[in-house]
Amino acid sequence: EARSSGDAGGRPRRRVVVFPLPFQGHINPMLQLADALHDRGLAVTVLHTGFNAPDPTCRPEFRFVPVPDGVPGEVATSGDVIGILDAMNAAMEAEDSAALQGVLASVIADDEQPPVACIVFDSNLLAVPRAAAAVGLKTLVLRTASAACFGCFLAYPMLHRKGYLPPQESNMYMPVKELPPLRVRDLFYSSWSDQNKMSNLLARAIEAVNNSSGLVINTFDALEPAELEKIRKEFCVPVVLAPGPLHKLSSKSTGSSLLNEDCDCIKWLDKQPPKSVLYVSFGSLASLNANEFLEVAWGLTNSGHSFLWVVRPDLVRGLDNPGFPNGFEAAVEGRGKVIRWAPQQEVLAHSAVGGFWTHNGWNSTLESISERIPMICRPQFADQMMNTRYVEKTWGVGFELEGELKRGKIEKATRKLMEEREGDEMRERAKELKNKVGDSLRVGGSSQIAIDKLVKHILSLSL
Ligand code: UDP
């Protein structure tokens, strides 16, 4: 159905505005969704903040329009995600979201472009619904985390009522029987100290969905059937669509990385035997302390396995560009490679990669599943714990590395995943799961149907 939404000459008849939350794990799926909509004949305008602004040259076919974000320099460089989010939302909501309204009004008024049908925004951008309503623009919400994660938003009041929350040290491993397979420790808000603020944020995210013209979740029906069904039952929005994994939906190859991807690592992978390499990356935000960093370095070394390890400049708390321990480089020569940022989807798709040690951000989880790669899971915050739980319990394609990070444990976990029977069984299940991804993406598959429905729905929305 490519180009189905263009006119007879193939020119777009409608335009969508997209507004991602400016963090890597949110920018990627939003731009992937925009690619898929563009492939199907819609024009795209991307709103972005100055903070973590995407590189417009990666997508010359899109328009990029800045929105003032009000994040002070020292907050922007602090690495404090919640602080940045608070500053951004406060600035965008100031004076009744006047600045954002102004941007939206001028985007709508741009008559060199096809008329705007709607704005697709990240549900964490709290100022969007009001500003969009003020200029008469319909909204669609993109959730970049799992359906299970949004299900937990909905369950928050129930979890309080039933005494699971606020969490107690003593009930961390208690199963939440209303939300299998989760335990109290897997609920992302267990880690939040300010429950009032949390409850307010969750309520606003839910309200944004309820007041929208539709909800898009980066997942697919066969992956989270019960979780999606629950959301479809509880919301009366016109559509709840699951066209994921979004990175597989468009044939476009350009990425949206905020850091430069080290593509030489692919040449290095080309020289390694099939399934021999453990890929190690903790995403764009999770970090280690200096001691954990050393334990990881020696654990990987002592495992005897080949590895490709992403060490971001800010991976180690308190150290810029951390140094490796004495003897590390010599010990791993030829079988260990360290890079600053990976072309991750390409790495995971490479035949030399046999395992992924991940923090289980939702994108990394989906990307791993899409390429049949089993996982060692080391979640830190937000939805990472619940993603780990699904990986281990529901899909059986990985296991958690729990407790203090120690080299001996890392060595054992690496061996388990890469050479032992249990690892092989996970690899088999990962293959089956990859087939389900393939089924959903095939013509007539659930994700293709969902994206086509979304395009139709967008075309039916008018100013
Ligand atoms: N990523 C990448 N190169 C890296 C590490 C991560 O391109 O070296 C990408 C990864 O493919 C994913 C995103 O960054 O799309 C991280 O999102 P995720 O939800 O996994 O984690 P977050 O960074 O939000 O914690």
TrEMBL record:
GO terms for molecular function: UDP-glucosyltransferase activity. Gene3D superfamilies: Glycogen Phosphorylase B. It comes from the Eukaryota. Keywords: Transferase. The keyword Transferase applies. InterPro entries: UDP_glucos_trans. The keyword Transferase applies. Belongs to the UDP-glycosyltransferase family. This is Uncharacterized protein.
